[in-house]
Write a structure and sequence with these properties.
Largest sheet: 7 strands, mixed
Radius of gyration: 25 Å
Strand content: 25-35%
Length: 570
């Protein structure tokens, strides 16, 4: 079949004829990274020039275009009040989510169409075009029930302050994950019930203050435990019961020790968090988790083949990805589900051939576009549904569209633009209110150097009480506390305890948290290690392993075989 873009294809072939694998210098951070022959082959197959920046910077860059954990009360032009993921200083105009969907169906955004100017850079025109299209105040699933204060949460019920994930019920302050119910303050967790303050746990019940545990019940302050029940302060145990600080006890002795620890007292919780720092810092850690995977490099790689990155499930030939599910032939993606042939895109679902896109769904062959649904062969578009052959939201006949796109892509390739993600200054979020801030926090000066805004949170809650006035003991926390705001001792920001949160803590009999919810969530996400991959030797056998645990981490880092042996030694 003749090429639809012959000029671009010829230019791209000439470009790749000069590309060789080897060490590169990141254009964004100055760090060194390797560009492999396999990566070059995948970029060539997908028709996009290779990246110029290191993996962690790629993920930071993409997630600077997603909202973070802060939500805001905003007033729309019609005077109505809505919950919004955009801070009050964002330059974009907002409309309600239902009105935005109605406007899409009525083709309202086609009226803001722009004609492309080949004498100017694409990104300068994109920024102007982007600001002309209103955005929905919040992106959420219309199928959700009673979950107004949630963002990017799908098919969920009675959720508050959740980010990402799907099929949750009665979940508070949760970030990513699937199928959790009756939980609070959990991050990257799956199939949990009645759990609190957990990171990277799966299929657990009544498990609190724990990390990387699976199939555990009534397990507290534990790390890397599998199939355990009634364990406290344990590390790397497997199929154990009644263990306290990795010591095997009788049921009676364990119950006596456990009942003496009153987790409904915030001072006791703080004391045990401090106590567990030392054993957790010394416990051997698995370099990476890769069940049922082959040729897999990274962490949390499940049922996959030929993959590189973090949290890739059911992937094949997926390189340098974070948060990929059931995808094939993709590179440089984050939070992309059920796709094929996607490159340098974020929050993409159920499509084929996305290039440099943001928050698109059910599309075919779309490039440099945002918030498209059911579209085919579109370039540089925003907010369209079921459209074909559009450029900057302007409709073209097919015979007009392809020559325009051919010339445009060739022009961008010549300028060095094609293949790069949108510049930071095109983000509608301030850096410190974006999701990038949870993985790669930077100071204001660095955010501005990158080109992104910085939001100064106003200190308007002068009536916020000092945190010392929030009762330490849960039994002393009456419903009266719901009327107050409290000052976070770490950030200085005011926060409330909401009624579902108080009810949840009463149900599990654990003290209320004493930090702002955003501060708690950022702490949990940082506990999950950076979105970087390093080569380092196994601390036991010396085998070179791929891990995202930095060299500064004090505990032994083990390959799969040595970690399995270490579990058996306990």
């Amino acid at each position: 079949m003749p090429s639809k873009t012959p000029l671009f294809d010829a230019a791209l072939r000439r470009f790749f004829s000069t590309i060789q694998p080897g060490e590169r210098t990141c254009a964004e951070t100055g760090e060194k990274f390797e560009l492999s022959a396999k990566d070059i082959a995948l970029y060539r197959d997908l028709g996009v020039p290779p990246t110029q920046i290191i993996f962690g910077a790629r993920m930071r860059h993409q997630r600077a275009f997603l909202p973070g954990f802060d939500l805001f009360r905003r007033t729309l032009p019609d005077g109505s009040s809505v919950v919004s993921m955009y801070d009050p200083e964002s330059p974009i105009s907002l409309i309600g989510q239902a009105d935005w969907h109605a406007a899409r169906l009525q083709e309202t955004f086609m009226q803001q169409a722009h004609a492309y100017d080949f004498d100017r850079s694409f990104f300068s025109q994109w920024k102007e075009f982007s600001l002309s299209i209103p955005r929905p105040a919040i992106l959420n699933d219309i199928r959700n029930q009673n979950s107004e204060w949630s963002v990017y949460t799908l098919e969920s019920k009675n959720c508050y302050g959740t980010f990402g994930g799907a099929n949750h019920e009665n979940v508070l302050h949760s970030d990513q994950g699937l199928r959790n119910h009756d939980c609070s303050d959990i991050s990257i967790c799956f199939d949990l019930a009645f759990c609190y303050d957990d990171v990277s746990c799966q299929r657990c019940s009544t498990t609190h203050f724990s990390h990387s545990c699976e199939d555990c019940i009534d397990t507290v302050f534990s790390l890397g435990c599998h199939g355990c029940q009634d364990c406290f302060g344990c590390t790397n145990l497997k199929n154990k019961k009644y263990c306290f600080l990795n010591e095997q006890l009788t049921q009676e002795a364990y119950r006596a020790k456990r009942s003496a620890i009153d987790l409904s007292d915030a001072n006791v919780v703080a004391e045990w968090k401090e106590k567990m720092k030392e054993p957790w810092s010394k416990a051997p850690r698995r370099a990476s988790y890769r069940p049922n995977s082959e040729d897999a490099h990274g962490d949390d790689l499940r049922d996959s083949n030929d993959v590189i990155g973090v949290s890739i499930h059911d992937g094949e030939r997926v390189h340098w990805a974070f948060g990929s599910i059931s995808s094939r032939d993709c590179i440089d993606t984050s939070t992309c589900l059920y796709n094929e042939r996607v490159v340098n895109s974020v929050y993409i679902t159920k499509g084929y051939e996305y290039r440099m896109c943001l928050s698109c769904n059910h599309c075919l062959d779309v490039e440099y576009s945002e918030l498209l649904e059911g579209c085919e062969h579109c370039f540089g578009c925003i907010g369209l549904i079921n459209k074909k052959f559009c450029l900057f939201n302007k409709q073209y006949a097919e015979e007009e569209y392809w020559p325009l796109v051919d010339r445009l892509k060739t022009n961008m390739l010549t300028r060095g633009e094609y293949g790069q993600f949108f510049p930071y200054d095109c983000s509608l979020f301030a850096y410190n209110t974006s999701h990038a801030n949870t993985f790669a926090p930077v100071e204001e000066a660095e955010a501005r150097r990158l080109g992104q805004r910085w939001y100064i949170f106003p200190d308007q809650q002068t009536d916020a009480l000092p945190i010392e006035q929030l009762p330490l003991k849960l039994k002393d926390a009456t419903d009266e506390i719901l009327k107050n705001m409290y000052r976070c001792p770490q950030t200085g920001r005011a926060f409330r305890v909401v009624k579902p949160e108080l009810e949840f803590h009463r149900a599990i009999n654990v003290a209320l948290p004493r930090l702002h919810p955003v501060a708690r969530r950022i702490e949990r996400m940082r506990d999950g290690f950076p979105l970087e991959l390093w080569k380092r030797p196994c601390s036991n056998c010396g085998t070179i392993i791929s891990t995202r645990i930095p060299a500064s981490y004090p505990a032994p880092i083990l390959c799969d075989l040595c970690f399995a042996r270490a579990q058996l030694d306990f």
